[in-house]
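Purpose: get a first structural picture of the assembly so the mutagenesis plan has something to point at.
Setup: two entries, given in the order below. No constraints added.
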Amino acid sequence: MSWLTDFVRPRIQALVGKKDVPENLWRRCPSCDQMLFHRELSENFYVCHHCDHQMRISATQRLEMLFDDGEYERVEIPKKAIDPLKFRDTKKYSDRLREAQTKSNELEAIVVATGLLGGLPVVIAAFDFDFMGGSMGQAVGEGLTISANIANEKKAALITIPASGGARMQEGMLSLIQMPRTVIAVEQVRESGLPYIVLLTNPTTGGVTASFAMLGDIHIAEPGALVGFAGRRVIEDTIREELPEDFQRAERMLEHGLIDMVVARRELRDTLIRIISLLIKKTPDDIEKKNFSSKLNEEAEKNFSDIANEDKTIIG
Amino acid sequence: MRHFLEFEKTIADLESKIEELRHLSDGDGISIAEEVGKLQNQVNKQLKQTYERLTPWQRVQVARHPNRPHSSDYIKNLITDFTPLAGDRAYAEDRAIIAGIGRFRGWSTIIIGHEKGVDTDGRIVHNFGMARPEGYRKAQRVMELADRFQLPIITFIDTPGAYPGAGAEERGQAESIAETIRSCMSVRVPFISVVIGEGGSGGAIALAAANTVLMLEHSVYSVISPEGCASILWRDSDKSLAAAEALKITASDLLGFSIIDRIIYEPLGGAHRDTKKITSIVGDALDEELYELRKLDGDTLKKHRREKFLNMGRANLI
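Result (structure tokens, whole complex):
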């Protein structure tokens, strides 16, 4: 034991750089139970080398994976959602919220950020499933409408990355009305002629699927992601039948025509860049123009810093 | 056959006494009539007391009452020349949502409503008001028709929720609801919804993203059924009563949050005791609201609807 802790571990830490080494160097794949070396796992986009299982990752990990050089600017969304219903089940909702905030180090189940993707300006709204199951309440709805507004005003593409169990019950009808609210938000992006892309990750269900998440110009899903409206158990209880293993899985949804493509995590960034570029750079000239992206970059950067400042003043 | 709810036992007893007396009316006519009158007064008093202070869970039961007027009752009593329209033009006709054109007080109008069905056969035909994607796609098609001919839209909301079936999932239940909400947000015509019974989650709001949302006094409108909420959050389906309280699903709660615009008060003892009366009250309310909306042009109506929803609930954010 002492040999391991005194000798091997320090050597490994020296090797990979102390700062980046998590407490636990190894992680067990929840799907195939193989032990995976943490650094290899992170290099492989948190996909298991043995069974290709796509591990759950946080919203910020998503953003780092997608934006150019992993650089982005976070957009503030309303800081606190109060507990409008004074909801209490076995626990108070306000306590559940606080716990989720402590656990995740995020204020809500969504992170909105702006930056460049393949040199093109984009706004990304990514869900954190670990924050109360990525459920959509008022703050999440607000995050989505803000991301759409920024995309609109600054002529950027919008990418949403849902990972959610659906509406947040603890906010009652105030969560259900986020469905029409987010539908309007993404519709306005589409009406501006800007690309709106949905990256469906595991799982995307309920009121989230039945609103902004099914209205993309392009629907991309991660392999094996569960995408549906009703929960498996509810359906099985209704039809009194056992559902097949791959029910509501991305590959099956592809067969049923509900998504455009299933894309492995390592290919996501390139795929998104290609699609957005195809939708924005429409002429041979656009591609030829060396300055096309850099000019847009400058504008985008200026615009983004403007909007970030504006937002701060609005939200205070 | 009248159906009594579990909290209506006293009322049920009194009414059965009245029935008995009426059967005996061959004898001493006058004294029986007097007795019936007295009992009827007691019934009315009981009804008033009970229905004045219904708990949220009792309201859920009233909202689901088998005799509660359905969309078809409102159409029968309020719409002339009603011409039903069928099918989504792609896959099937879903009778959980009925749709058509007719005249409301003289005006050509598009009507869309969830229909639960009245008897066992009807309930099966209408799938208990639980729509599949085809029902929502029919609604989209009919909304587009309204937009093209500039006809106002009235929707009647009464569903436990969208149908949770395997086929419904694979034919895009979520997509069909999302697209229907988008249709609601795109039409440039007056659009009014009335929650007449159960407003069950996404399946309900798909037809209720309207300029004006009216709600019957004893209707409920919720993000999830109290039973569903209880089994998820309390892990105990017997906690439906507590869930019904916590979810704030009654008309007065929702008016307080500005999620609905107006409460329509029901006749004594609930809408299910007087279909004719409630349909005419709803008719008058619709007439008043449509009169207001007709003053606005199409683009303003669309903008009004979008802004109304975008601003909804914002006051609760810090």
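Confidence is low (pLDDT under 50) at residues 311-316 of chain A.
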